[in-house]
Automatic annotation (TrEMBL):
InterPro entries: NTF2-like_dom_sf (IPR032710), SnoaL-like (IPR037401). It comes from the Bacteria. This is Nuclear transport factor 2 family protein. It comes from Streptacidiphilus fuscans. Residues 5-124 form the SnoaL-like domain.
Length: 139
């Protein structure tokens, strides 16, 4: 598989759309982002992976006011897979809370082409907790 520029743009916009939909409370539109059987891995936050769009939606509603008021995605890197039609996307995310505090995550996504366009089939969310990925010069 070879990605053309239009694919790369569509995938980057897909990843960017997440923050807009969630921040707007448009959780009824999550099917525009994810496959119906998406695995949303939040184990780095002490939770079990969420399976399916309905579970992702329910988790966001359950967080309620604890959700960030703003999600910002940056540093999107799209890497095509040679054989299986999947695309790997790595990006950074910043979440701004209502009190002004900020947190950082990395998103590692597997993106697939569906009849409705590109969709995220797997997302692993990893918290940014230490500078330099926790590495020291001695590593």
């Amino acid at each position: 598989m070879s990605l053309v520029v239009e694919d790369r743009l569509a995938i980057t916009e897909l990843v960017s759309l997440h923050g807009h939909l969630v921040d707007d409370g448009s959780l009824d539109r999550l099917e525009e982002l994810f496959t119906s059987d998406v695995v949303y891995d939040v184990t780095d936050f002490g939770q079990e992976p969420l399976r399916g769009v309905a579970a992702v939606r329910a988790a966001a509603w359950a967080l309620g006011a604890a959700n960030p008021v703003a999600h910002h995605v940056t540093n999107v890197v799209v890497t095509e897979s040679a054989a299986d039609g999947r695309v790997q996307v790595r990006s950074k995310g910043l979440g701004i809370k209502a009190d002004g505090s900020c947190g950082s995550v990395s998103y590692d996504d597997t993106v697939v082409r569906t009849a409705d366009g590109w969709r995220i089939s797997h997302r692993k969310v990893s918290a940014g907790r230490t500078p330099l990925g926790g590495r020291t010069q001695a590593d």
